[in-house]
Amino acid sequence: MIYTITFAIGSKQPDYDRLTAALRALGDAIPALPSVWLLDSLYDANQIFEAIGRYLAHEDRLFVAEITDNSMGWIEEPASYWLSQKFGLY
Fold first, then answer.
1. Which among 18, 24, 25, 83 has most CB atoms closer than 10 A?
2. In this predicted model, what pLDDT tens digit does every residue of 10-61 receive, in sequence order?
3. Which alpha helices (H) appear in the chain, and where do they start and end?
4. pTM for this structure?
5. What is d(CA 60, CA 5) in angstroms, rounded to the nearest whole number?
6. For residues 90 and 81, is the Cβ–Cβ distance under 8 A?
7. Are 86 and 40 in contact (CB under 8 A)?
8. Domain count, the chain
9. What is the rounded distance in angstroms from the CA atom of residue 73 to the CA atom of residue 57?
10. In this structure, are residues 38 and 23 in contact, taking their beta carbons and an 8 Å threshold?
């Protein structure tokens, strides 16, 4: 399943390295926009939320949602190509 993961870091000293490592450990992950990642994973949204959430502070925010081929957007390469490949468009 393909997910979009969006986060807002409110903590003063965010640990982006641990956060991105946690994302990549869950499957094939790629940044799409600032603070937005795309993830191809066998885990469900709740499992992804729990796995990533442990690396965020109380004042940070996190949103995880499954996306389908019935989605539209304008994102830069290589994320748009990655997404097109996942849905068999290229």
1. 83
2. 878 778 888 899 999 999 999 999 899 999 999 999 999 999 999 998 999 9
3. 16-25, 45-53, 79-86
4. 0.89
5. 13
6. yes
7. yes
8. 1
9. 29
10. no
- Report the CATH number that the domain containing residue 39 is assigned in CATH: 3.30.70.240
Domain span holding position 36: 2-86
Residue 38's contacts (CB-CB under 8 Å, 6 or more residues apart) are 2, 3, 4, 5, 29, 30, 31, 32, 67, 79, 82, 83
Query: 58 near 25, Cβ under 8 Å?
Result: no
Question: What beta strand segments (E) does 2-80 contain?
Answer: 2-8, 28-33, 36-40, 61-67
Structure tokens at 36: 């937005």
Alpha-carbon distance values, 75 to 34, 50, 78, 83 (Å) = 11, 26, 9, 10
Cβ-contact 20, 5 below 8 angstroms: no
